[in-house]
Amino acid sequence: MDKERHLDAVDPEKGEAVSAQNAAPTLELGLSLTALWVGYYRMREVEQKTPLFYDPVAKAIMGEDDARWAFQRMQETLEDSWLMSKAAYARSEANFFPVRTRFIDDHIGRSLEAQVLCAQSTSGGNPPRQLQVVDMACGFDGRAFRLDFPSNTLFFEVDREEVMALKESRLSQIRPPDLTCARRVCISADIITDKWETALFNNGFDPTLPTVWIMEGILTYLPLPVAKALLARVRAISAPGSSLVCDVVNAAIKYATPMKKRMRFLRDEGAEYNLFISDPIAFWTNAGFSQIRYNFPGDNDASYGRIPPHPFLQLMRIVIRFVIAVLYLGAGFLSGFFLPIWAGIIVLVGSIVLCEGWALLFQEWLARRLTLFFFPLAYFTEVFV
């Protein structure tokens, strides 16, 4: 297989779509492959009986043949394991990516609503002058056309020139729905090597106003120093009240048998998994963010009826709860050796009543920590400035 996949593009002189064979620019495998692969699931989601979202431009942007090619290419990189068959893993991916997209969509809606309410409460009921959303390495997502934005929202899309050229070429071949945001601004820039901040400033971005930052499917591929540098750049131009939503993976995923073949393939194609976050609180605190929230797929806020509660997390909750119950009983029995039976019962009941809230918090904290350290996991994170 060649290392390039030629796709439809725009002739820079004529402004017309050209054939795949002569397309320029071309999209290399690696990160562009993963963008098409994820796009395949987004494209398929709109065909479900009860879709988690409706993307009216997904099929046009992806190109059905290209998305299917990327999907099949990625499916070939899975393998069976004692933990999960490759067929089961493929089914889990088919639910994970739509859930991830919907989770991020919901974060955007909540964050913009909170910004509006905050502005109204501090300005006598007046709406904010401008709302702004920045979709970093946006790929082939059609979020600007999919979501219902307040009319004073600027929606920025940032990605490499060849990705944006292909996306705009395909959008020009259809009649996309009208935007609800004030403006959709497309910025052709590499988020690592280019000065995308300058392009944002030149196109209406206001660093004194809160921003919703989207990093969907990005951070996992960045080495730790690169990820830290990118987050520092984002943090530097984010006003108080800004938020960032993303997905990351933990270190245990490196040892997941179904993923080993895929990770070797992605490494060879320049899209290696590089960033593993098993302690989200420490990572995001060190990056200068606060109000750190992370959700496992299957949590109440990250299920949408598609993903069941995480089995390892459920098991850890049961085990920890059992240990706590044994400690309670042990305290009651021990007190019975030194106190009358009635006093021992009072001690036991009192310890349960007084410590139950703490025990539940400890149980949940420990169960989630153990899951992050021992079970392969991709999960969603929301952080604030």
UniProtKB/TrEMBL annotation:
Gene3D superfamilies: Vaccinia Virus protein VP39 (3.40.50.150). It holds the Pfam family LCM. Residues 1-21 are annotated as: Disordered. GO terms for molecular function: methyltransferase activity. One of its GO terms (biological process) is methylation. Keywords: Membrane, Methyltransferase, Transferase, Transmembrane, Transmembrane helix. Residues 1-16 have a biased composition (Basic and acidic residues). The chain crosses the membrane at residues 318-335, 341-362. Belongs to the UPF0677 family. PANTHER family: S-ADENOSYL-L-METHIONINE-DEPENDENT METHYLTRANSFERASE YKTD-RELATED, S-ADENOSYL-L-METHIONINE-DEPENDENT METHYLTRANSFERASES SUPERFAMILY PROTEIN. This is Methyltransferase. It comes from Nannochloropsis salina CCMP1776.
